[in-house]
Design a protein that fits this description.
Blueprint lengths: L1 H8 L11 H23 L10 H13 L4 H11 L8 H33 L14 H9 L4 H17 L4 H18 L7 H7 L19 H4 L1 H13 L5 H26 L1 H4 L3 H5 L3 H22 L4 H12 L1 H15 L9 H27 L3
Helix pairs in contact: 2-4, 2-15, 2-16, 2-17, 2-18, 4-11, 5-7, 5-17, 8-11, 11-15, 12-15, 17-18
């Protein structure tokens, strides 16, 4: 019955072209949420159990991790947008992936650069990164340089998706690849080869730790996160042929919402909401979290679609700008944070974190708008 209804909602020919406003809003809000999460990660008390506001911070951390409108939805939209190119080109997508991987490593160097300057001036590095107080300076440098930022993961995902498009891989095989990754991740995540260099390399594919298990470079391992762009790609193949976008969103969104309920119940009994959305539990996601967040990530897109239709265009203009400048905003906020943490204390209250977040976002929004504008004009 579901299949027949879906066939009635999609055409044999493409019906949607160009930018879709709701996807721009979702992308804009995603980068806003990610910047906020990173600010709170950097400036909240390091030991929430001993902090007076520990419960509030712990609850906020779980809430932001469980909310799929950030990184998960960002990756899903990336997959959807592959279908909205006027001339989808698998080779071009793969080239973008390579550039993102290179850009990700450049970003990691820029993130540690202020710390290296501090090291040359003061002879100390770790003291400026109290979350790594147990590490040696050289370990912190290695961790940061090989940190698997979401840009690196996105690049890896685009290379695979580009190959899928170039060789016209069927939807069934795409689903099989995703399932194989999730199943393999169940057995491989956390595996220690006994070699830190090998653990660092394998950490780009599944969750690993280094330096006797105390640290990790594996933040967005491919096997844990590929489901989101792949799901977006498959949904996008339907969306571009939707006879009525509103009916399509309503039908599929309601179905996904109903499907998410049993997974939420299972998660409640297995402790998913207690430990699965913070720290390594968030980055090294397992199959249950993958499925639940995939369902709700799409529902977030659906919600934004219907809400944005009621909001005057002038109020959405900011999110459109954030979406257009999303890569610049993402890169600039990490660069600015890397400088700021050399000077500010690392234990603010919730209000202080919000103030830093708002100030930082306004700054990087302006910087990205200015830089992108000048690059676009050839200045």
């Amino acid at each position: 019955m579901f299949g027949r209804r879906m066939k009635g909602l999609v055409s044999d020919e493409r019906t949607l072209y160009g930018r879709q406003p709701e996807l721009d809003v979702v992308r804009g809000l995603s980068v806003l949420l990610m910047v906020g999460a990173h600010v709170f990660n950097q400036f909240t008390p390091l030991s929430v159990e001993s902090a007076a506001t520990g419960d509030a911070f712990s609850g906020l951390a779980n809430l932001t991790g469980a909310f799929p409108g950030g990184a998960q939805c960002f990756m899903m939209v990336m997959g959807i947008l592959l279908l909205f190119s006027t001339h989808p080109d698998g080779k071009g997508v793969m080239r973008r992936g390579v550039l993102l991987i290179i850009g990700g490593f450049v970003l990691e160097f820029l993130r540690i650069l202020p710390g290296l300057v501090n090291l040359m001036v003061t002879g100390d590095l770790v003291s400026f990164y109290p979350e790594y107080a147990y590490a040696e300076d050289w370990q912190l440098i290695v961790i940061t340089l090989f940190w698997q930022d979401i840009l690196i993961f996105a690049g890896m995902a685009l290379i695979i998706m580009g190959a899928v498009m170039m060789f016209d891989v069927s939807d069934v095989w795409v689903i099989a690849i995703v399932i194989a990754m999730m199943v393999a991740n169940l057995f491989l995540s956390g595996m220690d080869t006994g070699s830190d260099p090998l653990n660092i390399f394998l950490g780009y594919f599944w969750g690993t730790t280094v330096f006797d298990g105390y640290m990790t470079t594996s933040r967005f391992p491919l096997f844990s996160w590929f489901v989101y762009p792949a799901a977006g790609y498959l949904i996008g193949k339907w969306l571009v042929r939707a006879r009525s976008k509103g009916k399509f969103y309503k039908m599929l969104g309601l179905s996904f919402l109903l499907l998410s309920v049993p997974f939420a119940v299972i998660g409640a009994f297995t402790g998913m909401f207690e430990s699965g959305f913070t720290g390594l539990g968030f980055y090294h996601q397992g199959m249950l979290i993958n499925i639940w967040c995939t369902l709700l990530s799409f529902d977030w897109i659906v919600l934004i679609y219907f809400v944005s239709k009621k909001v005057p265009e002038r109020y959405l203009a900011h999110t459109y700008r954030w979406s257009r400048n999303i890569t610049w905003i993402y890169v600039m906020h990490f660069v600015v944070l890397a400088i700021v943490i050399q000077f500010l204390p690392r234990s603010f209250g919730i209000i202080g974190c919000f103030v830093i977040f708002l100030a930082l976002f306004v700054l990087v929004d302006w910087l990205s708008w200015t830089i992108r504008g000048r690059v676009g004009r050839g200045a």
